[in-house]
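To the wet lab folks,

You asked to see what we're planning to order before we commit. Fair enough. Below is the target structure as tokens, and below that is the sequence we designed to fit it. If anything looks off to you, flag it before the synthesis order goes out.
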């Protein structure tokens, strides 16, 4: 196998043209087979095989720097830098990361996981290079979808002033910038109405009409194709007017063409965009036909493309998907907003049923939140469905645009807590801390699938900013019999005993129920309280619990600092309560990738670890 000749970075340069063609197919076969066993990001990686190979042929690593936007498409890059053998442990605890990691290889120039950051980071590398008098090349790879993020335009604005080389690879896998980048539409519209452009288009049309038989067919073909006159002219005009040289478009699956254009890009003294056209999922038909389904996939059968593990129980996302459709049926003002994550957040069904009330703003979380604030101010009921780790990007907008005005915006926060295989950039372990510090914000977390529905209904009828956080994975179906109505700021006593009180938030109620069972078997008296509201905290419940309990145990799937437990401990300290508070939470650190159950054990928030901590604290007081 040609692939076996790749042991380390730059080994690809030793291959012949014939071997390069074979290598691209071997890499695709390897990726399909490997990801079918481990799971991972498939479609995006299959789409950039030749693009990655061309960059590694033209540039020299690690001296030259390649910065991947988002980074989930860096698998071929990892293979070409000698990490092929690590793919058996891809995204597993202690194994190969699914994203670039500087600590993993000197060929990974920058850690990434969120969108629209690569141009800014690359620009920083360029300035650093120039200030140090070095002469290496810097490449930032960014997708057309990521150009919907405002940060990318902020960086492009600065890049246009450069007088030294900086290469931006625009990986366009939809062959249409205007379609995928909503923020460009007005500017492109102005260009299209430009008189010179219109005159040119008319003259071309007239000339084509003179061709017998085929003239009209050619005109219709040009109008339909995305790679027609507009696609060839307008993107170049846009970037050139920003002060950035435009090269392309080029076939991203043609290594010869790619290497040629990259060599040209190296000669330019300034920022240059190389517009590369690629196909997501290339080489694996199911991924080509449904790339979004194979964006991040679980292990699957290579022959059929179907997941190996059959889904038996609905996830919290599934429950939310049905609940928001029902809520929209009852509340005509309800509008659902997503930042390019309709499938991931469960809004696909809502989109089908209520297309006029569904808005996808693209990868633009900051805009999504302020847009929602405007909707709320106009009298609508906006629901922003977003992953916990991505909502971090809109922190200022939540404060400045939503909460200062006390606007009724609902935040449906998916993937709250540990998410597992995607690692540090995707763990949803900060939202409780940053949400609960914002005045006017209300924060809830359901204990099971039924309470999620109850809480969404409550949120729709609420009067101010309100967040509902729930985890990734199967929805808990226990404790169904405990189903008291939701009352603002009130928790729920599930078991009322003495000595030890477990106050659990959201997903940790399931763990708390198991811990309580174990403690009961060992002879301990133990209460269990479902917090429900994480802000405001139920002070009346806390005062009641202090009467008959010596040890108060708070449990949350969030970092300790600024979390639920700290706020309860502060409350007891303020009232001089004679109780000991044990805070069960994630230590103040980033949590790497791996199976969620393994990560919980490593962080000390699994059933057995919590039980040991409780017993030690109770006996030691």
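Sequence we intend to order:
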């Amino acid at each position: 196998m040609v692939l076996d000749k790749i042991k380390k970075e730059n080994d690809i340069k030793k291959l012949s043209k014939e071997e390069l063609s074979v290598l691209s197919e071997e890499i695709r076969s390897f990726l399909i087979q490997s990801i079918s066993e481990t799971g991972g990001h498939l479609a995006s990686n299959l789409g950039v095989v030749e693009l990655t190979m061309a960059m590694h042929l033209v540039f020299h690593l690690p001296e030259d720097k390649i910065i991947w936007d988002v980074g989930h498409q860096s698998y071929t890059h990892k293979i070409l830098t000698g990490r092929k053998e690590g793919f058996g442990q891809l995204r597993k605890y202690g194994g190969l990361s699914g994203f670039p990691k500087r600590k993993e290889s000197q060929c990974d120039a920058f850690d990434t996981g969120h969108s629209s950051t690569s141009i800014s980071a690359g620009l920083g590398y360029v300035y650093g290079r120039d200030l140090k008098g070095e002469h290496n090349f810097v490449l930032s790879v960014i997708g057309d979808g990521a150009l919907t993020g405002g940060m990318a335009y902020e960086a492009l604005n600065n890049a246009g002033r450069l007088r030294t080389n900086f290469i931006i690879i625009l990986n366009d896998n939809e062959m249409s910038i205007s379609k995928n980048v909503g923020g460009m539409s007005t500017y492109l519209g102005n260009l299209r109405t430009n008189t010179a452009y219109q005159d040119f288009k008319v003259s071309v049309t007239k000339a084509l009409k003179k061709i017998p038989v085929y003239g009209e067919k050619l005109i219709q073909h040009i109008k339909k194709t995305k790679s027609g006159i507009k696609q060839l002219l307008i993107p170049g005009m846009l970037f050139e007017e920003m002060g950035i040289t435009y090269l392309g478009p080029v076939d991203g699956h043609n290594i010869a063409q790619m290497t040629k254009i990259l060599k040209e890009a190296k000669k330019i003294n300034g920022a240059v965009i190389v517009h590369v056209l690629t196909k997501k999922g290339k080489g694996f038909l199911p991924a080509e036909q449904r790339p979004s389904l194979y964006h991040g996939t679980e292990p699957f059968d290579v022959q059929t493309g179907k997941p190996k593990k059959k889904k038996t129980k609905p996830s919290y996302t599934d429950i939310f998907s049905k609940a928001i459709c029902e809520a929209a049926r009852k509340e005509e003002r309800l509008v659902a907003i997503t930042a390019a994550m309709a499938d991931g957040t469960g809004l696909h069904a809502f989109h089908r049923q209520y297309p006029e009330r569904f808005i996808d703003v693209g990868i633009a979380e900051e805009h999504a939140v302020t847009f929602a604030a405007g909707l709320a101010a106009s009298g609508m009921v906006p629901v922003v469905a977003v992953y916990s780790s991505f909502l971090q990007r809109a922190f200022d907008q939540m404060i400045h645009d939503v909460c200062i005005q006390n606007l009724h915006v609902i935040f449906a926060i998916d993937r709250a807590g540990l998410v597992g295989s995607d690692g540090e950039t995707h763990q949803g372990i900060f939202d409780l801390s940053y949400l609960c510090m914002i005045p006017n914000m209300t924060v809830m977390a359901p204990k099971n699938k039924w309470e999620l529905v109850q809480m969404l209904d409550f949120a729709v009828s609420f009067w101010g900013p309100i967040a509902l956080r729930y985890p990734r994975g199967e929805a808990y179906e226990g404790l169904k019999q405990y189903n008291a109505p939701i009352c603002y700021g009130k928790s729920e006593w599930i078991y009322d005993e003495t000595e030890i009180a477990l106050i659990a938030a959201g997903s940790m109620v399931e763990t708390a129920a198991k811990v309580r069972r174990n403690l009961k078997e060992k002879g301990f008296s133990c209460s269990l309280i479902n917090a429900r509201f994480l802000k405001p905290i139920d002070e009346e419940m806390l005062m009641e619990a202090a009467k008959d309990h010596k040890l108060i145990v708070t449990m949350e799937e969030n970092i300790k600092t600024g979390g639920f437990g700290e706020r309860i401990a502060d409350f007891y300290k303020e009232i001089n309560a004679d109780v000991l508070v044990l805070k069960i939470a994630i230590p103040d650190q980033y949590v790497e990738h791996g199976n969620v159950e393994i990560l919980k054990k490593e962080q000390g928030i699994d059933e057995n670890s919590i039980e040991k901590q409780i017993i030690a604290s109770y006996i030691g007081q």
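Structural context that might help your review: The two ends are 65 Å apart (CA to CA). The first strand starts at residue 65 and ends at 68.

Thanks,
Computational group
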